[in-house]
Amino acid sequence: MANLTVTYFSNCLRRNTSFKMFIPNDPRYDWPPIENEYTKRPTKTLFLLHGYTGDGDVWVNPMQCAEYNVAVVAPSGENGFWLDGISTGHQFATMLGVELVDYVRKTFGLAKTPEDTCIMGLSMGGFGALHTALMFPETFGKCAALSSALIHNEVADMKEGSGNEVANYEYYRECFGDPSKLKESVNNPEYLIKQLKEKSAKFPEIFMACGTEDFLIENNRKFHAFLEEEGVKHTYVEGKGIHDMVFWSEYAAKFIPEMFG
Amino acid sequence: MANLTVTYFSNCLRRNTSFKMFIPNDPRYDWPPIENEYTKRPTKTLFLLHGYTGDGDVWVNPMQCAEYNVAVVAPSGENGFWLDGISTGHQFATMLGVELVDYVRKTFGLAKTPEDTCIMGLSMGGFGALHTALMFPETFGKCAALSSALIHNEVADMKEGSGNEVANYEYYRECFGDPSKLKESVNNPEYLIKQLKEKSAKFPEIFMACGTEDFLIENNRKFHAFLEEEGVKHTYVEGKGIHDMVFWSEYAAKFIPEMFG
Amino acid sequence: MANLTVTYFSNCLRRNTSFKMFIPNDPRYDWPPIENEYTKRPTKTLFLLHGYTGDGDVWVNPMQCAEYNVAVVAPSGENGFWLDGISTGHQFATMLGVELVDYVRKTFGLAKTPEDTCIMGLSMGGFGALHTALMFPETFGKCAALSSALIHNEVADMKEGSGNEVANYEYYRECFGDPSKLKESVNNPEYLIKQLKEKSAKFPEIFMACGTEDFLIENNRKFHAFLEEEGVKHTYVEGKGIHDMVFWSEYAAKFIPEMFG
Amino acid sequence: MANLTVTYFSNCLRRNTSFKMFIPNDPRYDWPPIENEYTKRPTKTLFLLHGYTGDGDVWVNPMQCAEYNVAVVAPSGENGFWLDGISTGHQFATMLGVELVDYVRKTFGLAKTPEDTCIMGLSMGGFGALHTALMFPETFGKCAALSSALIHNEVADMKEGSGNEVANYEYYRECFGDPSKLKESVNNPEYLIKQLKEKSAKFPEIFMACGTEDFLIENNRKFHAFLEEEGVKHTYVEGKGIHDMVFWSEYAAKFIPEMFG
Question: Which residue from A13, A15, A53 is facing B16, i.e. has the nearest CB?
Answer without folding.
Answer: A53
